[in-house]
Description:
By secondary structure, this protein is an alpha+beta fold.
Amino acid sequence: MPVLHILRRTAAVLLLAAATLYAAPAHPAAANEPGWTAEPAAGAATTARPHFYLAGAPGTVLEDRLALANTTDQERTITLRGADAYNTADGAFAVRPATPGAGATGATGAGSWISFGAATTVKVPPRTRAVVPFTLTVPPASPPGDHPAAVIATEGGHEVGIRVHLRVGGPTLAALTVEDVAVRGRGPAAVIAYTLVNRGNVALAPELKIRAEALVGEVSDPPPGRTLPVELLPGQRVELTEPWPGAPALDRVRVTLTVTAPGGARAVATGSRWLVPRGLAGWTGAGLLGLGAATAAALYLVRRRRRPVPGPGPAPDVPSAAGPTTPAPHHELTGAAR
């Protein structure tokens, strides 16, 4: 009987495992995959490209190709458009969404210069790779420099974006500023916050160096200089922070930020702050308030003690017993001898 009982339990476990395997999807990761890809088409003498790289003078028409690959057994209908690119507040690269009423694609910058002609909507058969040409027409009055954009492919709620690095011919300027430098937080949680603004017309890869000074004690500098993990696009503003775990607990600190970028861009800015422990800050404020009240009271008492006390008035003339007094003779000074 024990052997039969063990065999029954083993069979039940095997049946349960088989049912679980049958119910689970064969490829759980494939549920989130769109079943198609979009990427720049490789040329005859080039390998795969991560982005589109285009350059031309104002008024020129540039051409390139997009490759769409359908890896499923059903036809895919993919919509294509151009989009404007920008930096988010924390420096990430992003594209503008399609906005009704702002043109066919919602783009107003370089994204609106991209056209797929009649191939805005492409049907890709199963297990097929399609190559779609497109043009980028640079307007005659376009300013020189970098104009970030992207090609967007959309199907079934899934969206794929490929960056377009476009440079319009003409003079270029690499320039930036550092603004709003501040020390936030306390102790190991302290950070240095600042804002970078691209004042030029080319994209920048900024490098940051920080120097710290203290009013009373010695202070360790924040992490050494490094290239920031952000591509600062022309005309964009980003807000960044740098950790400073070695910030002093009680001191007045001054931090100096120096930012450089290829092309000669350089900017320097400073910021300062009193760093006081959170608990000590409340006691310090209360102590200063009490000291101010005590000082005001002491000044009031001193002023009261210095105020003059009114005395008796002049004594009245009292006639003596010998009669009225004879006034003393008065000598007039005339300058002549008498």
